[in-house]
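Reviewers of the previous submission asked for a worked example of the structure-prediction workflow described in the proposal, so we include one complete record here. The input consisted solely of the amino acid sequence. No template or homolog information was supplied to the procedure at any stage.
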Amino acid sequence: MKLCKSCKAPIDDHVKFCKSCGAPVSEENITEQQSSAALESQSHPQPEQHSQQAESKKTKIIAFMKKPIFIIGLLLLIGGGVTAAILLNKSPKELYLLSEYNSIKESMAGFEDTYGDALKFQEQTLEKPSQTEFKVSGGFTQESAVGDPDYDMFQELLSSSSIEAKVQQDPTKEQAHYELALNIENEKAIDAELYQSKNQLGFKVPALYDKFLYFNHDQFGKLMRKMDPYYTGPEKLELSNLELRDLKLTEEESEYLSDRYTGYVLDALKDENFELKKDVNFEFKGEEMKLRSVTLSLDEKEVKAFLNGFIDQLIKDDKLHNILIKRLEIVADAASVAEETEPFDKKEMKEEMVDSLKEMKEDLDEISFPDGFKSTLLIDKDEQIVDRDTKFAVAMDGEQANAAFTTKNVPYQDDKEWNEWKIEVSPKEEGSGNKLALQYTNDVQKQKEDRTEDMQVKVMLEEYGEPEELLFKMNSVFKGVDGKQEINREFGLESDSPEYVDLTGFKGEIKQVSDVNLKKEYSEDKITVMLDIKDEYDPVSLSFNLETKTTLKDNLKFPDLTADSNTSMNVVEASEDELATIIEEISMGIFELGTQYGLIPEQDYYYEDDMYYEADDTSGYDYFD
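From that input alone, the workflow returned the following C-alpha cells.
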C-alpha cells in the first residue's frame, strides 16, 4: 500500500487525492515499507516520550482534516473554498488554513461547554420514548388602564390562569400524544387531546365529547366525502415526518466532497498567494503581544479564475448533483403531504440545477473585483486567530461596493476574552455619506465555573452624511457548568436616532434555571421573562413564566383507538344517527362553555327541559336548530 507523501497516511492506488490531508497523489508517493526505511535512516535518537508526543501531534493534525466543519469554515472564508492539506512543516498557506480550522474548533468547543449536555439530551429524545410537561403563565400591567373595571376583571382572570401541556412521543413506534389545558384558579377550564400514529389520527375535547373521534389514514377520502360529496383529493392521509438528520450527509458523501474540493483549492490557491510576517506588534486594552501575520492575496484575475473554476467543478460534479437531488426529494415528499404537488422529476431537477450554475457563471462575467481579495490573519503561538481583516470590492453596471469583514478574539488580563465581528459595506466614492455596518461584541470573563458576558449588537446606517444607530445590549451572568446552570440576563435597546426613539424604552430581564442530567435521563428548565416598555404616555410591563421538564421513558401508554374500545369512535364508520348525536353533544358543550365564561350574554338565551333556546325564539326548536 502507498503512503501519502504529505501526511504519511495510507492511500489506495486508484485515488487522486489523499483522504486524510487532501494532498494530490503522484508518482512520488512511496510505499509503506519505503517510508519506514527512509524515516529510520533520517531520524536522530530521541527519548521515547518525545517520540510519542510527536506522533500524537501528527495524528491530531491529520485527524482534523476529516472533519466536515473545516469545509464550512473555508466556505465562509472565501465564498467557495474548502479545506486544504495541513502538513507537519507548515508553509504560510498551511498556517493560514490551520489557524482558520483551530478558531472554528475553539468556537465549537465553547459552544459544547455551554450547551453540550442539552444537545446530547435532545439527540436522545429522537431515539427513545419521552414525556414532556410544561406550564406557561404570565401577566401585564398598563398604567393608563388601571382602575378600569373591564381591565381589572381581565387582570384578575389572567393572573389566575395558566396553560399546561403534556407531550408523549415514541420515535421507535412513530406515535405521539398531545394534551393541552387551560387552567383557571388551578382547575381545568377546557382541555384537548390529539393522538397521532403512522396509521391513525384522533382528537378529543372532554368538555364537548368524552370519546376520542378518530379515523384511519387510509379512510381519509371517505371522511372527506362525508363532508363534501364532490371531494376528489387524496384517499390516504400522509403526514410529514421530516427531521434535519434526514438531510445530513453520510460519511461516504462527506469524504467524497472533501476529496474532490480539497484538491481544487490546493491547485487554485498557490503558495505565492500567501505571505508570512513574524513578530508583528498587536496592542489591545493596554496589553501588547507579538503575533504572526499571514495574508492571503488574490488579484482581480485570480479571484475570477478561482470562482469560475469552482463553478465549473460544481457543474461537472454529477455525484454532488445526486447528493442534492436526494435531499430535495426528501423535502418535496414532505411538502406534498401538506398540499398537492406535481411528482418530483429527478432528471428535470438536475437539469435545472446545472442550468442555474451555468447562468451563475454567465452572470459572473458581468461582475468585476477591482481590488481583488485580501485577508490578513494575526495568529498567536497556539495558532489561534486573534485578529482578522478581510477586504474586497464588487463592481457591476458602473457601481462599486466596498466590503470589509473584521473579527477579534483577544484574550487579556488572564481571565477575560474579547470577541468581535463587524461587517461594513459602502460605495466606492469617498465622502458619499452612505454606509451600512453591523457589529457584534462580547466581553467575556471566566472564573472557575462562573462566567459573565457583556454583549452588544450595533446597527449603523448612514445616508447622505446623517448617521443612525440602534444598539442592543445584554449583560449575562452564568453560574455553574453545562448540565446545571443558573443564568440571569438583562437587556435593552438604545438609540439617539428619531427613527428609533420609540424603542429606546424597551428593556427587560430573563432568569433561567437549567438542569440537564444525562445519567438520570431528564432535562428541566424554569424561565422568567420580564419586559418593560417605557412609553412616554402609556408604559406597559409584561411578565412570562415557563416551566418545562422532559424525561426519557422505557414505555409510554397511548390512547386505545380501536373499534372495540369504549373510549373512542371511528367517525368514518359511524352511522348517520351516531354522527347527529355527536354533533348535538358538541354543540351543546360549546354553548355551555360560552355561557359559563360569559362569552354568550344571558339575555340571548334561556334554558328549559335540558335544552338551550334563543331568547326571542317561539318556534320550539332548540338554540342550534
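Residues 27-88, 618-625 have pLDDT under 50 and may be disordered. We consider this example representative of the routine output the project will generate in years two and three.
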